[in-house]
């Protein structure tokens, strides 16, 4: 997710710049001013409470702001990201935003402040007042809005300076120049964020071979827990020895080991564009682990893909594989194949359902040649990349 807050005094050009940002980057636009005007137009309880404060150019209480913003954010959690205009406007609201972002396992990428001197703000707002029809675009109220800005909103900058995500721009420059500078900042933010794909599918659906080929095509790091565990055994590492004794006793490898390996993989993978996860997360617990690990790296999942293949075809493919040198120890007998399909059904399908509700899962027809399936998945990945750029 790409989350940006546009900051600046009334009349700084936040609304104008927002229009191009939301189109170009497909962000969900949240203007607390617009949300409040909607409440007022609908004569809701919150709208009526806010009305006189807005008319006088004051700031509406943080309690009202939380109520109007929380639902909008949670209802649109699967968007590409959020663009905040006119929020946070107080120090308390900066903390509120932190909490709301955390709830969505994401964070604010940056706060862009458009600097405009007071007299220029007044001039612009008076001009806007001629056509905007906004009762708060008149000089007395404008002066009060600017006073509120200086006393309550400006201190918010310190919060973001301390976090190191504060960027200042000259808001008096021509619109297209400000626009170009903001684009540059956003491109820079995007290049910092990892592009992560999770590849689901029943054993035999082709996730492994597709995953490796996709990782090569998109320059992503392929993360498959099965081979990672085997690697540790081969290396004879401490973890490898533990895994081996668990295998020998027919026990499952505990999440705690899987987490350690993935955590190490993420930490060791410097300068990568992102990851393709295959065979992880396999359980609901592991899905929380993945969300947490990515969050720790300031990242999230960009695309979730489920390769669909009918059960009989899966069995046919796994049976074929069991007769080749590529045979895995776990698909050398019918009972083992059935057990793996059943494990996926009972443990992994609920994870896919959870992701379907949270982010949406792209279902890909896994029938046809390798290339046909590869092209279908590539289209789904290209779409996700496009909506990010
Ligand atoms: P705007 O459209 O952003 O200029 O907002 C218009 C008016 O709505 C402001 O002058 C405030 O009275 C109120 N308002 C908008 N956003 C907030 C906020 N985040 N906190 C408090 N009051 C707000």
Please explain how this structure is put together:
This protein has helices at 14-25, 32-41, 45-56, 62-75, 91-103, 118-132, 139-153, 156-163, 175-192, 207-218, 225-235, 238-248, 255-268, 284-296, 311-322, 334-358, 370-388; strands spanning 4-7, 28-31, 82-85, 110-115, 166-170, 196-201, 221-224, 275-278, 301-308, 362-365. It is of the alpha/beta class. The protein folds into 2 domains: 2-191, 3-Layer(aba) Sandwich (Rossmann fold); 197-387, Rossmann fold (3-Layer(aba) Sandwich), CATH 3.40.50.300. The strands form 2 sheets. A 5-stranded parallel beta sheet has the order 2-3-1-4-5, sandwiched between helices. A 5-stranded parallel beta sheet has the order 7-8-6-9-10, sandwiched between helices. Helix 1 packs across helix 9. The longest helix is centred in the C-terminal third of the chain and has 25 residues, at 334-358. It is elongated. Adenosine monophosphate binds next to helix 2 and helix 3.
Outline the secondary-structure elements.
Layout lengths: L3 E4 L6 H12 L2 E4 H10 L3 H12 L5 H14 L6 E4 L5 H13 L6 E6 L2 H15 L6 H15 L2 H8 L2 E5 L4 H18 L3 E6 L5 H12 L2 E4 H11 L2 H11 L6 H14 L6 E4 L5 H13 L4 E8 L2 H12 L11 H25 L3 E4 L4 H19 L1
Helix pairs in contact: 1-9, 2-3, 4-5, 6-7, 11-12, 13-14
The site of adenosine monophosphate has 18 residues, from α2 and α3.
